[in-house]
# Entry
Amino acid sequence: MKEKTLVEIAVELNIELNRLRNKINYEKRKGNVIGIKRDGVLYLTDDDVGLIRELFNLVEEPVELNIEFNNEFCFLKSQLEEKDKQISMLQKALDQQQILTKQAINDNKYLQLELDGNVKKGFWKNLFNFKK
# Structure
């Protein structure tokens, strides 16, 4: 027999916590004992959960909804994985672009230095610059 706390049941059944507490207190006043209190925490057994389902007129979700949810979940998960791959590819492309930009800047600096080197030569050296 699995025991769950009041908060866990409220989340599981999608019921407001105060509304659930009020219903349990109302049933206690009527004489129906629901749950076991230990260390200030109310624990509910599976039988208590079934009783709460009856009190709130909740029915089990049909299997079709679970299958539909699982299909949607799988679809969204595959989309997320695809987006992760796209992000990693874009990151690689950005890294490569940064490397190419750095190389272009370095080449530009080298050419500028080479050009500046030719300008610093004297007039006669530029005029009689023989290539061997």
About this structure: Residues 12 and 56 are 13 Å apart (CA to CA).
